[in-house]
Structure formats: C-alpha cells, structure tokens
Amino acid sequence: MSYRTLKDLPLDENLTSGTMLCAGCGGLLLVRIFEKVLGKNVVTINAAGCMTLLSVFPFTPFKSSWFYVAMASAPAAAQGIRDALDMMIKKGRIKPEDDLKVVVVTGDGSASGIGLQATSGALHRNLDFYYLVYDNEGYANTGFQASGSSPAGSATKTTMPSQLSPTGSILNKKDLFEIWRAHAPPYIATVSPAYLADMMRKVEKASQFHGPKLFIAHSPCPPGWGVDSDAVVGLARVAVETGVWPLKEAVNGEVAHSIIFRRRKPVEEYLKMQERFEHLFKPTRQESILQSIQARVDAYWANVKK
Ligand code: SF4
Description:
The chain is an alpha/beta fold. Helix content is 33%, strand content 15%.
C-alpha cells in the first residue's frame, strides 16, 4: 500500500479550487481526494446533482474529462464510455497505457432512488468502473428534499416536523451497502471525510479489481444539515465514533470493518450537532424516536460482533 498517512497523498490536484459548491461541502472534499488517488487518466460521469455545478461551460476545475448525464442514467453512460474505450484500444486507436478509468459520481438521490436500476444493471453486467456516491442524505441541490437515504428523525424540506408528524422523517435510510453486496461486485467500501487516509487506501486497494468498485461517502452538507462549514470534518468523526457511520469494505462479498470501537459514544452526540435533528430535543425531548435511533445503531454493531 502506498498510502499510510495524508503525507503520502500527491500534491498535484486533479480537481482544483474555486468551484461554485458550498464552503465546507463534505462530498466535494471526498471527490477531490478520490480524483487525486485515481490520477489524471480518468473520465468522470456525473449524474445530475450538487456536483453538476463543478463543471459549468466554459469553466471546469477538472484536469480530466467530465461527462454530465441525467440522474437515472450515469452507470448506463459509463457502460457506453467503457465499451468505446475498449473498442478504440482493440482497433489500435488508443494505446492500452492511455486507457481511462471510468468513474461515476452521484448523489444519494440518484444512487438510492432514481439511478438504482441503472446501477443494478451495471453491477449485473460486471461493468469495470468506479462508483462514488456522496451521501448527503437528501436532494441537496434542489433545496434538500428527502431521499431514500434520509435517516429516520431527520427534517428535510419534505419531512418537516409538524403536529401530525413531530419526528420529521419516519422512514429509515436504505442500506445501499447491502443492496450492492447482493449483486456480488468485487469491491464496496464506505468512507468518511474524517478518515482520508482510510479512503486513500481503499481506493488504491479497489484498483486491483476488475469490475464494479463502489464507494459510499459520508458527506455532511452544511446548508442541508444545519452545521457550520468548519464543523464538517468534526461531525464526520463523531458519526464514526458513535457507530452511525461504520467504516467498512466488502471484498468479493466478505465484509471487514476498518475501525471497531470498544466503547461507542451515544448517538445523541452526533444528532445534537445538527439543526436537522433539533426538533428531537426542543421544545420537548422525543424519547421514543431517540431510543429507536440508538437501538438501530446498537443492533447493527451487535450483529457485527456476532
Ligand atoms: S448543498 Fe450540500 S452537498 Fe450540495 S454543494 Fe452544498 S454542501 Fe455540498
């Protein structure tokens, strides 16, 4: 492994500064590191979402190619590009050493909802590509409506706490890791902006596999989650320390966790840092939903122990 600490990260940037994204965007930090580790020979396929604002003609912060498609079809576009590259190599129009890594970047709205069928198809066909979902747990670029990834108890524009539904969202977050694992791809991992060296190692490890290489990136979103831009990395760390965001990978279906804490912090520490969960504590504490959120996390880790 070439990546032991952050000092091993190349200084060259493949995604430069000055984009139109929000200051402190957790997703942007992870896309930047992802592109750094993958290098310059990359073509990135972007499903419509927040990251669409990265490349707006005639400006781009990328040193490599960028291809923008509708939310539903990024893995299908990746298939077309992979096939075209393979054919050009076969015909001798590009040298094998000039081949490009095909990378899909999507938000969770696309990954867990609108684009799920296209992803399922690509996994079924064993498409050789990378897939990074920046999971900000909502449709952030359109004002933060609920997605299939929004956690129970969170407030979004479409799950605002009210007298009838005081808890906000009543639905649990989809388990994308397990949905993907059921398709048996060679590599899946979760990553966090608070553990960048872990992410670097995972991207490097994934590169040895042919087929789908999938990453779910915890992506705190300052305007959508109600946190300050400079609190994003600290919040992401607490998500891991409370067990809300397990850092793990599945190599050929075999799951291993990167970190297992002997003592986890209470989930409340994570929830209290964000305005989207404020209604669970004020004006009155909503004990039952708080207990069920903690119980869900506890049940996950009890299963890991087993
Ligand atoms: S809305 Fe959230 S996810 Fe989108 S760019 Fe801003 S911080 Fe990032």
